[in-house]
Amino acid sequence: MKKSSRKPATKLDQIRARLRESAPLLPIAEHLGFHITAVKPGRVTIELDVRPHHANAIGTLHGGVLCDIADAAMALSHATNIAADETFTTLELKINFLKPVWKGKLRAEGKVIHPGRQVATSEGRLYGPDGKLYAHGTTTCVIFQIPVHQ
Question: Is 130 within a domain?
């Protein structure tokens, strides 16, 4: 059977196609070891098994790693709402750390709050292995056309 050469119409289509093909979606995901477990319009879930190499100097999960998975979940939730010929970049990112993480599986849930045409916002919540909230954040992104020279 011949594969279709038609390009997906939305970023959501592209994300789903890459996940079906088990193709790498985010280079940082490969580096840190997290993976997308759910994707639908305006929502993305990511999971990370905390490992010793994710630790900071005092032995807890490094805040940058928490921020990375929150950022990825929130950013990908934005991506599900834009056209294939659009992209975005972060204007602002804020995160609140509530509890230290020592080990176990983390779940980051990104959800679009405002799917604007030019500026969009989303929130992220990070849950620990006990199902409790360990961190939460928000992001604001600006959406623009992918330059033709790309």
Answer: yes
